[in-house]
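Record format v2
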Amino acid sequence: MRPLILVVVAALLAVPVARASERHPTLNELEGEVMCPVCGTTLDQSSSPAAQQIKRVIASRIAAGDTKSQIKNQLVAEYGDAILAAPEHKGFGLLAWWLPIAGIIAAAVIVGAGAWRWSRRREPLLPGPPLDPALEARLNDELRRFDD
Amino acid sequence: MTRSARLAAQGLAVALVVGLLALLIWRVANDSNKGVSQALRDGQHPTAPAFDLSRLDGRGRIDLASLRGKKPIVLDFWASWCVPCIHESKRLEAARRQYGNRVAFIGVDTKDFSGDARSWQRKHGITYPSVHDGSGGVLTKWGGLPIPRIFFVARSGKVVGELVVEEDLPRYLRQIAAS
């Protein structure tokens, strides 16, 4: 129960942070979320002229008071969806976010169901044949002597 | 699980794997297509891949296929962040004064901010029309980066050549103007 409460509290604390990031984005965070169109890396890993150009534009849009979504929308309008390092949480982009999670859940269910069936199918351990009474008596004597 | 259900599940799994393999092979085969530039290096003269893109100056669109059979074309792939593009585009601007009536000069501003691209054209006195290929999808069909890339298309729509050596510009211009 306690971990669940911690997760809920953490999620509640993260909401205002995300809202602040949406309203007042920084160049640093956007550099990690936007691709350089000529180098195949994010902007923060590139110093190519094309990356510098986009960084300059992002900085000017931040200074003009644009939100993160507005800046990203402008970049997508100019360069297409591939300019974003991660697909957006809407439309077809949702597939990219939820498909792997659905795959992991499906795999866990399949593995769990398989393990459960396998554990039920195993034959219970049967007791061996009864010992010869003479042998059992001798064994008890030996054990008693060993204990003494 | 019954035997038939197990067989169906196995068949589905095999079909999934085969499907993914087919997708991978298709993707690799498509990637091996290096576009017009590679075809020219292989000695072929492919038909110019069509595009229909918005003009940078906002005056409508340019549909490359609509020029087929009407005018030869010089196609200039450039971007405002590309330093060598300045020199090449200026040379084409000068050539346009001589061949502008017989040859269509078209720029393709690629992987670029359209606002910066318009400023760049004004700054360097480039007056031939350009279209905006922000995603670089058209550039990929013609050969991809690096830029500048300049192609010469005959009146028939066949690509005659790509400018590799600067001295070849007059020869290509004469060749397509006469086509």
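The interface with chain A takes residues 79-83, 111-114, 116, 134-137, 145 of chain B (CB under 8 Å).
The longest helix of chain B spans residues 3-31.
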